[in-house]
Specification:
The complex is a heterodimer of chains A (231) and B (214).
Chain A lengths: L1 H14 L3 H34 L5 H13 L2 H12 L14 H25 L3 H9 L4 H11 L1 H17 L2 H7 L9 H10 L3 H29 L3
Helix pairs in contact in A: 1-11, 2-5, 2-8, 3-5, 4-5, 4-9, 5-8, 5-9, 6-7, 8-11, 10-11
Chain B lengths: L3 E10 L2 E11 L4 E6 L5 H9 L5 E7 L2 E3 L4 H5 L3 E4 L10 H11 L4 H15 L14 H13 L5 E5 L7 H14 L5 E5 L3 H4 L5 E6 L2 E2 L1
Parallel strand pairs in B: 3-8, 3-9, 6-7, 7-8
Antiparallel strand pairs in B: 1-2, 1-4, 4-5, 9-10
Helix pairs in contact in B: 3-4, 3-5, 4-5, 5-6
The chains are: A mainly alpha (231), B alpha/beta (214).
Bound molecules: adenosine-5'-triphosphate and magnesium ion.
Chain lengths: 231, 214
Amino acid sequence: MELLQSTAEALRLLMAGDAELWGIIFVSVKVCFLALVIATPPAVLLGFFLASRIFPGRRVLIVAVQTLLALPTVVIGLILYMLLSRQGPFGSMHLLFTQQAMVIGEAILAFPILAALTLSAVQAVDPRVAETARTLGAKPWRTSLTMLLEVRFAVMAAMVSGFGRVISEIGCAMMVGGNIAGVTRNITTAIALETSKGEFVEGIALGIVLVIIALTINFGLALLQGRGGSR
Amino acid sequence: MSLMLVRGLRKSFGERLLFDVAELALQSGSSYLLTGGNGSGKTTMLRILAGLETAQIGSVSFEGVTIPAGEICTQLSPRVVYLHQHPYLFSSSVAANVAYGLKAAGMAHAKREALVREAMTWAGVNHLAHIAPHKLSGGEKQRVALARARILNPKMLLLDEPTANLDEEARRQVAGLIRQMCDNNHCVVIATHDPELMTLKDAVQLRLENAALR
Ligand SMILES: Nc1ncnc2c1ncn2[C@@H]1O[C@H](COP(=O)(O)OP(=O)(O)OP(=O)(O)O)[C@@H](O)[C@H]1O
Ligand SMILES: [Mg+2]
């Protein structure tokens, strides 16, 4: 019964446009969005080169990307914490417990997903794409661009997956963000805090938002995969 | 002078020798019908001539200029264009596919437009402009691919079974377009079994058999 009541109250809070609540949601969305904007270009480039070029160290790099994919978010948070803390090598930049630190952390988390998914998308691209481009006179860079354009839906799907991973993680956001109210408190760290205080309403409201985001993401993914697989 | 002259062309896959050709001379203004049984190496031969596949090559020259064997594609495309048996159309639009080579050559959009329209009209694909390329039928794809190649005015066109797996109507349309391309300015090499194309007038017969070309 209490759960039902709390949920009703949570929905009321959301509908009422509660400033604190929506501020927290905004922090999450903003941080994740910026992280993706930063991580996507280098990750897509790396994924593309790993898929299409043969060079010494390639296998090592592929394994490294796959390892990063499996690294727990708290471990990334821990490493970044040590780098950014006052005694750390980047301590003088005073980034710890700021949104910038969260953006860096989430970008690092999104990077291997984007790189790995781009890698497999480019590996799966029809060999006729590059051959057709080359025989029509395309230079290597245009051939590469054409291949990337052919897998654009897969790359967008990778971005959506990356967004899904970083918006729902808590380890890194908590450690380098510090859950400071009005600054670095985001959906996941707020849920953890409210729950630990025994206050479920706000937690449930944010949980609902997170679930809606997750559903939207999966719906978007299904759409993108439909487009990519339609040829 | 031959348009393309290849000497000492050998291709093997592992232990298996696919073909060993002492000399292959292709002339401008001539068309060639490349025949041979399944697996005789027709596709492989065309791909080697396009520089899309490696082989042991004694020497290659094009219009009298010697080309390093490893640089056939980079140096000769798009003067030499290869068409896959099942052409791949980029997932943009039909017009963008036809324009691709001109764009790659750096031609400005405004200059391209009239040429693209002309090539599409030639291939009879104007009405397909707004359909997603992957939704086109096999014959329509083949026609778009022919327009995409012809717009570049290639010296040599390598066609891999362009009418295979097409219905009667589509075969006639595609064969008609190919017939038009076999003129004095082009060298067209067609791998085919299609009787419709075998009647191409003045075409030189090349047959791959027992690892030799005759
Ligand atoms: N990458 C490869 N590795 C090993 N064998 C290959 C490879 N590519 C082609 N072959 C073999 O070489 C032979 C010639 O192939 P190719 O496709 O050139 O023949 P084709 O004359 O075009 O046949 P078809 O009439 O069926 O199109 C085939 O037996 C094929 O299995
Ligand atoms: Mg073949």
